[in-house]
Amino acid sequence: MRVALLLVASAHAFVRPALNALPMTKRPALSPEMAGAIAKAKDAAGYEAIVQETMVKEDCTYEEAVERYNQYLFDPDGYSIIKMNEQIRDAGFNSYEEYFIAEKGQEAWDQRQADLEADKLQKRNTSFVVVGSLLAALTVYQNFFMHR
């Protein structure tokens, strides 16, 4: 039994990997089209109703509405960012910063940036405390319990 397992294991060691295969981290597990197909299989009537509603709201063709809804199903957060950037561009601004300053003023933008920086600093300090505490606990454990 061991000899057979050894032969099988050693045979796999000489198998040449495919030259054009993508690394595991680069293989798409899902695409917008696949997300749309899954949603359509689960509830075809609901899917079509949302596509029709998208056609009316965004004044687009059926294919464009399907593409937009599939993109939303695939990555709702990314789709929201894309739509927000479109709205900012349609309002005549080049960036979110320009839009924010025009709407709320430079002082509000500066305060927002200061708040974000303070939040980042607080998270960094919390990370140092957590890692330091874990390192101290590991040192105590090794010194007092491993050498008994």
Question: Could you explain how this protein is built, in words?
Answer:
The protein is mainly α. It has two domains: 30-92, no CATH class; 105-148. The chain is built from seven helices and no strands. Helix 2 crosses helix 3 (44-58), helix 3 (44-58) packs across helix 4 and helix 4 packs across helix 5 (76-90). It starts with a helix and ends with a helix. Mean pLDDT is 83; it is low at 1-15.
Q: Which features characterize this protein?
A:
flat; 78% helix; mainly alpha
Q: Topology of this protein?
A:
Layout: H1 2-13, H2 32-42, H3 44-58, H4 62-74, H5 76-90, H6 96-104, H7 106-145
What's this, in brief?
By secondary structure, the chain is mainly alpha-helical. It has helices at residues 2-13, 32-42, 44-58, 62-74, 76-90, 96-104, 106-145. It folds into two domains: 30-92, no CATH class; 105-148.
